[in-house]
Amino acid sequence: MLKRILKMVLAQGAGVAVILITQILLPPVFLHAYGVSSYGEWLVLSATISYVATLNFGITTYASNELTILHQRGDSLQYRRLQASTLALVLVLIGIGIALTAGVSLLPLNTLLHLRTINRAEAGLTALFLGLQMVAQILGGYYNNLFMVVQEMHRGTMWWNLRRLSATLVAAALALFHFSFAANAFGQFAAVLLVALASIVDLRRRMKGLPMGIRGADWATVKATLKPSGMFGMIFTQNFLLFQVPVILLQRLLGPDVVVVFTLSRTVFGTARQLLSVVTTAIAPEITFSFGSGDMKKLIEIFHYSERVVFSLIPVANLGAYLFSPLLLSIWLHRPGLFDQDTYILMALVSAVMSVREHKAYFQYSTNTHHRFAHIVFWGSLIMIAVSVPMTVRFGLLGFMYTWLASENVQMTLLYRENRKLFADDPSITIAPVLKLAAFTAASLAPCMLLLDYARSHSLLVIAALATCGTALLLTASWFVFGLGAVQNKIFSRVSGP
Length: 498
Description:
By secondary structure, this protein is mainly α. The protein has two domains: 217 residues, no CATH class; 268 residues, no CATH class. Helix 10 runs antiparallel to helix 11. It is globular, with a radius of gyration of 23 Å. The protein starts with a helix and ends with a helix. The mean pLDDT is 86.
């Protein structure tokens, strides 16, 4: 188990590196090539068409989890039936996605989205190729997740990393040469499709005769798949509500300049959160393996040790990112004026709560016990969007941020209850670690704000030095507060043991 986890940590670490390359490289390149307003409108177009990714309908995640469990239990007949049926369903949804993308590309997007620097034809072609890229991602994602069946999920993750990296490098290169948005979107689509096809060829060599096609599909299995997959569909639609709809909303209510400030702040803290996700994503296959074999003792052990690690890193990653934000904007984009203290401190808090929620969520959807979880995050995000409209009109960007923070806290609390149900109300699963994290973050918040307030009136070198010291202090305090010594001893005992 430890060897598989370490491989996943390395693969996820590579994934974080790819995301860092994407998030560090693309904004300055696009800002330099197209300007602030045009870049804001690219973000809006990307957000508008990204709904196509939700057409996955959760089938990819449900199928990989369930197929892994069936393979673990030796049920080859049901395995073949489910794999063929889920693939057939994915192919139908891909066809629907292509049709929807084509339909959206024919709409007057420049008028509907209040685009000022992109004409109707270019907006339509850009949306078309961005949508086709999402479709290619669905196909690649389905097959990449099947690597988990043969306990090589790290390999599937590396193919995902390569798809994203290829799209990033193509996008940056075309932007540097001032290609149109439409040409840029086509280049990304072509890169993603080629890598997805290569990953399927690699998977076929690794599956050791396990079926990968649609032979054996039947309507009864498709219907039985729709409900649990639909729950995952709600979860992934929640991502669209949470990450793309706000961009469209802010564009219409506050304009592209605010979209850029919001998106960049979210990028900074999203990168910090990706560092945390290395731990949680690395253990996700082990959660599925332990649940599939009925080893609840091991599952509880994974829960507690991963919680200690993730909770200890949450304040370090998010408050550390807050401390470094002015320096990042100055060096990365040469635009220190894009830093807004209120927005960034609220984004740090939102990101911290999201990190807790995401850790707890992995135990639900890695075990396919996600029915109530799907309703919590979907309806919670939908209500948040509805409430945020008047709040944004009345209080601007901060009104949206406070609404988002409140929503994340409610969802996280409800997910804690779902974790307890998963573990049959085991007495060791308590809210105490969450309360400890909240108290630690609250106690650290004011000193971090004061430290950054002082640092910003000095040179970039001073900001860097003080931010480094502040982050180091947070890490040292977290080590003792969350008891990371016990995790260290556990790892050393496993490595040195027989």
